[in-house]
Structure formats: structure tokens, C-alpha cells
């Protein structure tokens, strides 16, 4: 498979009726809806992912949703993948951000469909990569709303960035509000208020999300569910599994069976 797609998660899910709690990804989410609807929302707006629409979430955007008979495909390209392609097109290394969040563009839909179809059919690498570049370059050329300088995630949100780095440096720690607030030189009251205002999640939800994102990556790399859950700080595997399904809409055992999920 193309090196561009190394360690990138794919999903091909039919008839979902799951609710998704507030969460975010450090990657992009790009997907197609074939049937049903996902009613999704973030701190700015609500929107429906309907039949034959393209759905996009930018890295770090908090979102949630409710699905009804939702059949869709998703993949989660990294910031590096999108930035490198942007640089190839414009000779400028920047991170593209896209209009929220539904794109009604039939040409783009078909190009993404062709990419997903060739990927799931395990076609020749050159065909998959050609379809990938064709689809993502069309997305970049038609749907960018703004760009940012190439920096780490949350670089423009100092409190979030410092907290993100602090948590990731010791992901299995039992964090306290005292720890988190003193790390950014704030009182607990001001830390809670500013954190939720800037990010849209409580620190506790943020920590759970980070642990689940990390565990997701470990399971894709072949770690057992128990190994992944303990390594990121979950001492109770049932608690880990419940949260995993709540955030991602499928269980860690489904991910373990096939890192490119086909349900």
C-alpha cells in the first residue's frame, strides 16, 4: 500500500445508529455519506451529513453527532499528508483548513469515491495513490477557507498547547486540576474557564480523548487491547472499552480485528 497511507485509519461502516460524544482528532476526517444521515454539531454550528455529501473535519475541531441508518466511509489523513500536498500545489508549506463541514460537490464526491473504492479493493498502489492525489488536490483547490503556518497542533492556543504537551508527555498519569492549572500558571477556576472557552471540552474530556486517540494508534500497530489501555492510563478495561465506543462509534475489538475497519 502507498507510503502516503501508512498508519492512516479507514472506516467503511453501514447502518450506524450510534451517538458520538464531543471529541476531536489530531488528523483530518474526510468522509462520504452513502445513505442515512449524521446530525453533527460543534461550538459554531450544526449540520447534516446527507446522502452523497462530502464531510470534513479539520484537526483539533471538537465535534459530536447522532447517526441514523448512516452508511459511510471515512479516512483520517495526517496534517503532514495534507500539508505536503498543499506545498506541491502552491510551493508554500502551510496547513489547509476547510469550510465547515459539508461540501456538496458531485465531482469531488466521485473522485473521493473512486479513491475509497480502489483502496478497499486493494488495487495497485499506483492507482490508489493517483486517485488519492486527484481527490485531495480537488478538495484543496475548491474548498480551502484559510491556511495556517506549518506548526504543531494547537500552536495558536497557548493554554491548550501547553496542556496538550504536558498531558502527552505523561499520558498514563492521574492528572489533577492542581497539576494542570499550575502547569500554565493559572488558578483552577481560571484554568477551567479559559480551557473550556478556548477548546470546547473540559480538561477531563480532553484527557480521555487524548488517551483514546493514543490507544487507537497503538491497537492499529498491533498492541493488544489490554496493553493499549494500560499504556495510556486506563486501569479498568471495561471503562476503556465503554469510552472507546462512546467516542469512536465502534469497540476496540472491532479495531483490533481489522485496523481498516469494515463493518
What does this structure look like?
The protein is an alpha+beta fold and 263 residues long. The protein has two domains: 3-149, Jelly Rolls; 158-262, Homeodomain-like (Arc Repressor Mutant, subunit A). Helices cover 46% and strands 24% of the residues. The chain contains ten helices and ten strands. It has helices at 79-90, 106-120, 125-143, 158-169, 177-183, 188-199, 203-220, 225-231, 237-248, 252-257, and strands at residues 10-16, 19-23, 29-41, 46-49, 54-57, 63-75, 94-98, 102-103, 144-149, 260-262. The strands form two sheets. Strands 1, 2, 3, 4, 5, 6, 8 and 10 form an eight-stranded mixed beta sheet that branches. Strands 7-9 form a two-stranded antiparallel ribbon. Helix 1 (79-90) crosses helix 3 (125-143), helix 5 packs across helix 6 and helix 7 (203-220) packs antiparallel against helix 8. The longest helix is centred in the middle third of the chain and has 19 residues, at 125-143. The mean pLDDT is 88.
Explain the layout of strands and helices:
Layout: E1 10-16, E2 19-23, E3 29-41, E4 46-49, E5 54-57, E6 63-75, H1 79-90, E7 94-98, E8 102-103, H2 106-120, H3 125-143, E9 144-149, H4 158-169, H5 177-183, H6 188-199, H7 203-220, H8 225-231, H9 237-248, H10 252-257, E10 260-262
